Amino acid sequence: MNRLWAAGLAALLVLGAARAETVTVPAPGEKDTCPVCGMFVALYPEWVATVLYKDGHAHHFDGAKDLFKYLLDMPKWAPGHRAEDIQTIAVTDYYYVEQIDARAAWYVIGSDTLGPMGHELVPHATREEAEEFLADHAGKRILRFDEVTPELLENLDAGRF
C-alpha cells in the first residue's frame, strides 16, 4: 500500500509541476487600451494578457498575440520600459478563464477559435488541455513561450500556420 501511495503522490507532483500557475495581476480598467492595437482590453475578459512591472505599472493586451508582439519589440511598443523590470507576465487560460503564468503556458495556434484580433495563440495551463483543444478545434501546433517569434506572429496574422 505504501508503494502505491508513493506512486500516486509522485504522479500528482509531476502533474502539478506541469500546470501553469495561477497568477495575480491587476484587472484592466474600462479605459485601458492595448498598447499594440489600441483596442479596449476590458471588453475581452476571456483573452486578457498582462505585463506587470516591479513598480506596479501594468500594460494589458486583448490577447496573447499582441502580448508577444509587445515583448518581442519593447523599444517600439514600450519606450522607457525594460524587460528586466517585468515582474509577471500573465495570459488568460482558455478553459478556466483565469490568469496563468505566460512563461509556463501551452499555446495552440491555427485553430478555428478566433480572438479579438483574429487568429490567436490560445493559452492553456497544461499540455493535456492544449492537446484536447488542438483536437477539438482543428489546431495546427502547440507552442511554448520561448518558441514564439516575430515571424510566427506575422504568419499568424496572415493566417499561415
TrEMBL record:
<feature type="signal peptide">
    <location>
        <begin position="1"/>
        <end position="20"/>
    </location>
</feature>
<dbReference type="InterPro" id="IPR008719">
    <property type="entry name" value="N2O_reductase_NosL"/>
</dbReference>
<protein>
    <submittedName>
        <fullName>Nitrous oxide reductase accessory protein NosL</fullName>
    </submittedName>
</protein>
<keyword id="KW-0732">Signal</keyword>
<dbReference type="Pfam" id="PF05573">
    <property type="entry name" value="NosL"/>
</dbReference>
